[in-house]
Amino acid sequence: MRAETEGRGVFDSIYEANIETIYLTAKRYTRNHHAAEEIAQDTFLKLFRNMEHTNIEAAKPWLILTAKYAAMNWRRDTAREYLVAEFTEEEERRISESVEDPEQILIRRLKEKEFTELTGDIFAALYRKNQRWYDAITIVYVLEKPQKEVAETMGMDLESFHSMLYRAKQWIREKYKERYDKLQGE
User: Fold this and answer.
1) What's the pLDDT band for 94 if we cut at 50, 70, 90?
2) What whole-number distance in Å separates Cα of residue 179 and Cα of residue 181?
3) The pTM is what?
4) Domains of the chain and CATH, by start
5) How far is CA 144 from CA 122, 136, 137, in A?
6) How many whole angstroms separate alpha carbon 151 and alpha carbon 115?
7) Is residue 162 very low, low, confident or very high in pLDDT (cuts 50, 70, 90)?
8) What radius of gyration do the chain's Cα atoms show?
């Protein structure tokens, strides 16, 4: 009975020292709070079941690797289910009441996701290409500030500012027109 109590104490100390790290490891790979909690608990359950065969000094690396691989497996196994799981209860209610085919809703959401990724890629490339272009495009078209005000803030006359916006938009068209057209055509 004493050995079992000591084993439980060792497990408790390992758990307390590592639960946050294991949870954060699982969350980093799953990007899902609930899955990360479950993976962390399963990882510690495996440790508890195998305490007598475990090198206590190597427990932390073992826990981290076990959680990492479990999280990667979870992501792989749920990759196709992930988009459906993104629907909120309100969206699910609207889908069930809607006359639109659920498959069409999913296709529309996938397309929206691809457009969002394209937008992110465009802004990242624009920032790398020319930070002033990035600032101008972002402030005028995303934040919807008046061009005259932005030109003054950037220390430019309005005509030069229009020219810069034109060049930035031309560059975006040259680099991303094909990808944009492909998304539009799908």
Assistant:
1) low
2) 5
3) 0.45
4) 2-78 (1.10.1740), 101-185 (1.10.10)
5) 18, 11, 9
6) 29
7) very high
8) 26
